[in-house]
């Protein structure tokens, strides 16, 4: 299975008429801190796309910066036991989304994924996420992100580690 990349994501943006821009950087941005430093923005403006499995079904969680996802809150929202929730391995992330860890955008995956967004994401003026490659970031407005990923929003932040 071929991995998806920045060019695949760019074609998805064009095909779906998504108002977002891919920024090609001169360095890798594998962490929130790397991305924030490369762009000179607060870590809260960097959004993570984290793949979970709830009862074996993939669920993409989009959260802000250095905030941690409250697992119990997510499990309760999904209607499952906390023990039935796990994070995906790097291999699972690549297999399900098509992107490598550190490059996963919030949409444009191999197949559409159920996506749950932490409500704190929408408090930011502009967002940056994985851009398909480890040296690329996607710039998107909160309103456009909401339009694309849909209505599943819940307060998931456990605490901010900034």
Concise summary:
The protein has 162 residues and is α/β, with parallel strands linked by helices. Helices cover 27% and strands 25% of the residues.
Describe the structure.
This protein has 162 residues and is an alpha/beta fold. It has a single domain (6-154), classed as YbaK protein (Alpha-Beta Complex), CATH 3.90.960.10. The chain has helices at residues 6-16, 32-39, 71-78, 90-97, 142-149; strands spanning 20-24, 47-54, 57-64, 85-87, 114-118, 127-130, 136-140, 153-154. The strands form two sheets. The protein has a five-stranded mixed sheet with strand order 4-2-3-5-8. The longest helix has 11 residues, at 6-16. The protein is globular, with a radius of gyration of 15 Å. It starts with 5 loop residues before the first helix and ends in an 8-residue tail after the last strand. The relative contact order is 0.25. The model has no long low-confidence stretch (mean pLDDT 94).
Give the arrangement of secondary structure elements.
Elements: H1 6-16, E1 20-24, H2 32-39, E2 47-54, E3 57-64, H3 71-78, E4 85-87, H4 90-97, E5 114-118, E6 127-130, E7 136-140, H5 142-149, E8 153-154
Parallel strand pairs: 3-5, 5-8
Antiparallel strand pairs: 1-7, 2-3, 2-4, 6-7
**Structural class per helix/strand content?**
alpha/beta
* CATH topology assignment: YbaK protein
Q: What is the average of the pLDDT values?
A: 94
State the end-to-end distance.
Answer: 37 Å
The low-confidence runs, each spanning 5 or more residues with pLDDT under 50, are none
Name some characteristics of this structure.
alpha/beta, 162 residues, 3-stranded antiparallel sheet, 5-stranded mixed sheet, 8 strands, YbaK protein
